[in-house]
Specification:
6-stranded mixed β-sheet, 14 helices, elongated
């Protein structure tokens, strides 16, 4: 095949319009396939959690994330062996200026927060301000940069889940290797704003830190067993599993992604096979001429297959580049709220996507290439189709 590389490239680009359209169709399909593969990896095959993440659990209502727990659970969980720290974990929701300005807004207990998040980096004076100012809030460096926030700025979140507006003051800007797109503020602000209502003693979830990673399974089981027969049964899970529970509202996402990947691959195969078949039918007489010039059946087979692999490879390369760009865009999209912070078009995903492209080029061309290569010289030269 490599002996005839120059001939393969020229033949593959002979009908430039058709070749270009085929390359573009493969590139677009491989781009979609690459993004889906990267999402599958980020959600289900990503690396092990960091040491700090491995100690943390999210405790929420067993029935649904939308069903609250009660604050009375907090001291009972705190007293359990193996529990180092516990904080409120309350999704506030609301709107900042425009509904399109979406980012995570979480209410926590500041006195426990920095122990729960030791990887978070922030000046000590900003930490102290967050600890002592009830209306204080802190924002990730990416979030602050996006909205042009500076220390001391007033940030108003119009409530929707809660019947009041959060009037906050930015007292700190943090950096976190895993998340810089979240706004944290004091849960006591919510409790005082909801004073004398039937929701005062409710909480969305608890953020729990175990003493060691080995304690996590036991702590998780003890918490769920403790409240199994209460009106508020709990479900304790890792941060990653908790994030996936949001996405699970869409259904069996793992099956969806696998099914779409299979459908995209099959579609590309059909497009490529149809294009190669058309090309081979147009060149039957050329095959007869090549045979009269001494080209063997193997030579012709390798040339036709090589053309298909070349076109598919170019499409796969372009598709991989587009997929890398889209993965970065999806990762930074505000609507993702940090759920896809592990999303990246890694070398492994790129190799898999490019391998699929080459495989499609190879498989789609084998049958027409074999049929053309086995045609006798006489039949080839007499072909008029």
């Amino acid at each position: 095949m490599f002996r005839h590389l120059s001939f393969i490239v020229k033949s593959g680009l002979r009908n430039r319009r058709r070749s270009l359209l085929t390359i573009v169709s493969i590139a677009v399909s491989l781009c979609l396939l690459g993004v889906l593969m990267a999402m599958y990896r980020a959600l289900f095959l990503s690396d092990e959690p960091s040491p700090a993440q491995a100690l943390r659990l999210i405790v929420h209502h067993k029935v649904s994330l939308t069903v609250p727990l009660i604050t009375a659970f907090e001291p009972r969980i705190r007293q359990m062996p193996g529990v180092r720290a516990i904080s409120a974990y309350q999704w506030f929701g609301g709107t900042y200026k425009d509904p399109k300005n979406f980012f995570a807004r979480l209410a926590v207990d500041p006195d426990q927060f920095f122990q729960l998040k030791p990887e978070l980096q922030m000046p000590d004076e900003q930490k102290q301000a967050f600890l002592h100012l009830r209306t204080g809030c802190i924002a990730g460096v990416t979030l602050a940069k996006k909205y042009g926030w500076k220390l001391g700025d007033r940030i108003t979140i119009v409530g929707d889940i809660f019947p009041f507006n959060a009037e906050l003051t930015l007292v700190g800007i943090y950096n976190d290797p895993e998340d810089t797109d979240t706004l944290y503020f004091n849960n006591e602000y919510i409790r005082q704003s909801m004073h004398s209502t039937d929701r005062e003693d409710q909480i969305g979830a608890f953020w729990v830190q175990a003493d060691t990673a080995a304690d996590v399974p036991r702590v998780s089981k003890e918490i769920d067993d403790e409240f199994a027969n209460s009106p508020y049964p709990t479900k304790s899970e890792s941060e990653k599993a908790f994030a996936l529970s949001f996405i699970s509202f869409l259904g069996n996402l793992k099956l969806f992604l696998a099914a779409i990947c299979g459908a995209v691959t099959f579609t590309i195969l059909l497009v490529s096979a149809n294009t190669i078949s058309m090309s081979v039918r147009e060149r039957v007489r050329e095959v007869g001429i090549l045979k009269t010039l001494g080209f063997t059946t193997g030579n012709i087979l390798s040339i036709i297959v090589g053309e298909a692999v070349f076109i598919a490879g170019v499409g796969g390369l372009l598709g991989s580049l587009f997929a890398a760009f889209l993965c970065d865009s999806v990762k930074r999209a505000p609507m993702m709220a940090g759920f896809f912070h592990d999303l990246s078009f890694t070398s492994g995903v790129a190799a898999a996507a490019f391998g699929v492209a080459l495989f499609i080029g190879l498989v789609s061309s084998l049958v027409p290439a074999w049929g053309a290569a086995k045609t006798s010289i006489l039949d080839s030269l007499r072909y008029t189709g």
